[in-house]
Amino acid sequence: MLPESGRYPVAPSPEGTTRLPNVIPTVIQKAQATYSVERDGREVTADEVARNAAFHRQLNANKAVANLLAIIQQLTANVNAAKADIVLLERKLVDAEVASEECNGEVFSLTNTRTKIENAIKARKDKVGEAEARIAELRAVIVELTKKRDALVGERTIIENEKSPNAAKLAALEQELLDCQNKKKKL
Amino acid sequence: MRNEIASVEAEIQSVRDGAADAPNAIKQIDEQIPIVDKKIEDLRRQLAEAEAEKAQLQSDR
After folding, report:
1. Which of A56, A125, A142, B54 could form a disulfide with A131 if both were Cys (CB 3.0 to 4.6 A apart)?
2. Residues A128-171: pLDDT tens digits?
3. CB within 8 Å: B36 and A149
4. How far apart (Å, rounded) are the C-alpha atoms in residues A181 and B1?
5. CA dist., res. B61 & res. B57, Å (int)
6. How many CA atoms lie within 13 A of B22 on its CB side?
7. How many Cβ contacts (< 8 angstroms) between chains A and B?
8. Burial of B43 (0-12, 13-18, 19+ CB in 10 A)
9. Rounded to whole angstroms, how far apart are CA atoms A75 and A94?
């Protein structure tokens, strides 16, 4: 605060050997006046307005430049990260292509295996069908041969019963012939 | 009478011929029956083999 006298106190000029520290700077620092618009203010000039405007434009331009630098820095970081990602993604793409080829090969192999299995099943079914046909054929032939065998046995029985040397029937016929011959002589 | 005598003589000859042929016919039949039996046995063996093959094919999936 400005003293009532309107002047800041001034210490006496030092004389002789200095024994105490100089307190004047401290006094000046502590004794600060309050700003008053009516008293201390003044009209703003056109040049000051222009300078202020120029200052603000320059400040805004600097901010824009700073923003552009920040954007460029971010873009650089993005580009570098993208370059690193490209290498990684290219490696993953190669791996994916290899995996895809392996999958295609596996699918092809499984398809072949499936075809082989289907063919084997069909061949097995065909063999079962052939075996069933053979069984039916053999059964029919066996039945037919059994009938023929029974017929042979029956024929043999008939021969044994009816065409074997039958002494009784022959004797009866010879007796009948003898009777006929005797009748013939009597006549 | 002659006709009756001729008929009886023909019948006697027929009986004699039949009796004469009977052993040969029986012999032929006796020869054929074992052949037929063997054939039937062979067919039954083939039938058993075919059924076994079918069972094997159906069980061996």
Report:
1. B54
2. 999 999 999 999 999 999 999 999 999 888 888 776 656 677 77
3. yes
4. 9
5. 7
6. 18
7. 93
8. buried
9. 28
The separation between CA A51 and the C-alpha centre of its own chain, rounded to angstroms, equals: 67
A164 Cβ contact partners less than 8 Å away, ≥ 6 residues apart: B19, B22
Beta-carbon contacts of residue B29 (< 8 Å; ≥ 6 apart): A152, A153, A155, A156, A159
Q: What span, in angstroms and rounded, lies between the C-alpha atoms of A144 and A158? A: 21
Hey, how many other C-beta atoms are within 10 angstroms of the C-beta on B23? 13
- Distance from the B21 Cα atom to the nearest Cα atom in chain A, whole angstroms: 8
* Mean of all residue pLDDT scores within chain A: 88
Token code pair at residue A17: 């050997």
Residue A55 is encoded by which pair of tokens? 């200052």
Closest by Cβ to B22, choosing from A124, A142, A164: A164
> Residue B50 and residue A148: Cβ atoms within 8 Å?
no
Q: Answer whether A142's CB lies under 8 Å from B44's CB.
A: yes
Helices (H), A17-45: 24-30, 37-40
**How far, in Å, CA of B20 to CA of B30, rounded?**
17
Pick from A139, A152, A177: CB nearest B47: A139
pTM (2 d.p.): 0.50
Q: How far apart are CA A156 and CA B22, in angstroms?
A: 9
